[in-house]
Amino acid sequence: MSAARLVVTLGFAAVLPYLGVTLHQERGVSATVVGIIWTTAGLSGAAMQWVAGEVADRVGRRPVLLGAMLLRTANLATLGYEILHQGPIIAIAALCVLNGILRAFFDPVAAAMVADLATGEHRIAAFSLQRIGVNIGWAFGTMALGLTKTLHIKFGHLFYASAAVTLFAALAASAISETRASPSAHVRPPLRLADIGAYRHDPLFMRFLLATFFFFLLQAQLYATLSLYAADHLHLGLVQISHLYSLNGWMVVLLQLPAFYYIRRKGTHRVLVTGALAYATSYALCGAATREIHLLLCVASITIAEIISAPAQQVAATSMAPAGRIGAYAGLFGLAQAAGQSLGPLLGTSLLDLLPDRLTWPLLALCGVMAASLYGKRARSSDRQVLVRTGG
User: Fold this and answer.
1) Between helices 107-117 and 292-319, what is the axis angle to 10°?
2) What is the pLDDT of the chain when averaged over all its residues?
3) Which of 367, 389, 366, 386 is nearest to 378 (CA)?
4) 131 or 71, higher pLDDT
5) Please, is 378 exposed, middle or buried when counting C-beta atoms within 10 Å of its C-beta (0-12, 13-18, 19+)?
6) Which pLDDT band holds residue 121 (cuts at 50, 70, 90)?
């Protein structure tokens, strides 16, 4: 699974982080419109995250995962064709939205498969391994842009390569056996939209989801907002911008394993709070950047916060799930994550258009402060419940 996620991310990272800047600089699309496209794509994906998790709990992880990967292969190839032939912006936007939906049928299902295969404290190690695989793909993928400039390959052709890589990942993932427990072990009623209301009876999980939303509202600024800020305000080229994302990927590859031991020693509750506060501080400092090296230092700090937060979030989400509901809980975690990542670009790009840099980034950083506060309240509530159950 880690190898499959590596290859999928390799294909994704080679093209999508730079699509917004390309539309902005080569097609004259405004930063706000780019934010609207990314937000629509993310919200569409967010709406499908819970559905994907519930479907995977009922029909199995494997068919959902493979179906999404094959459809995404076709979508990336079509997106490359439209970019190469100067297709209408509305068509490119629609394909971006479809990509977001298809991603929603991959991420929570992959997380559920990891949770099926690893239990208890082994989940931290398993999710850390997933992070390493994802970021090896991210690091190599973001380096592809520099290679295309050297070889004079058009940006649109990268989408064809990305489609081929995604198809290869689907073939690799087809070797993975079904991980879902026997359907007879937990009989589930038919899927209804009203079922989502049942989760309000789990207040700790709902507070965790709200904190996750604010966390990823800030985390999403790493992509469209930061790249547009680097291009328009610091006047960095695409290759220089790619250095930011390559640094992010390689740092995760090198430091995720040591971070596993840190998370295990400190505990997921404490790490969630620490990571959110570190995120807030790092993003606030982006407004003070005036050169590439300054932004590289900010990205390095952001990445360290990401390294400790991401596995802890996935472990917390799946650990709160009752028997037979891991896919659904992973899906709702994915929904909160995708909702934050969806609204984040619109919030960030709009603030960039309206406010000075030194004010935009500290305002965005308040999302991290809010996430840390909610994660902290959830941890205290969890500790009180443990004391009540044990009679302490």
Assistant:
1) 60
2) 79
3) 386
4) 71
5) buried
6) low
Cα 389 to Cα 381: distance, rounded to the nearest angstrom: 13
pTM metric for this prediction: 0.67
pLDDT tens digits, residue range 32-48?
Answer: 888 888 788 878 877 78
CA distance readout (Å), 327 to 72, 91, 105, 193, 272:
21, 32, 11, 16, 22
pLDDT band at 184 (very low <50, low <70, confident <90, very high): very low
Candidates 232, 10, 237, 40; CA nearest to 136 is 10
Q: Give me the numbers of helices (H) and strands (E) for the chain, helices first please.
A: 15, 0
CATH of domain 2-176+200-390: 1.20.1250.20
Cα 62 from Cα 23, distance rounded (Å): 35
Q: What tokens were used for 211?
A: 């904190």
Q: What amino acid is encoded at 319 in this protein? A: S
* Residue tagged 């990927």 (tokens): 249
**Domain boundaries, given as residue ranges, for the chain:** 2-176+200-390
Report DSSP state, residue 27: S
Are 221 and 363 contacting, i.e. CB atoms less than 8 angstroms apart?
no
Q: What is the DSSP string of 156-168?
A: HHHHHHHHHHHHH
Q: Let me know: does 253 contact 132? Beta carbons within 8 Å.
A: yes
* Contact by Cβ (8 Å): 57, 183: no
371 and 276 Cβ atoms separated by less than 8 Å: yes
H or E stretch at 262: helix 238-266
In the structure encoding, which two tokens stand for residue 295, read together? 């932004």
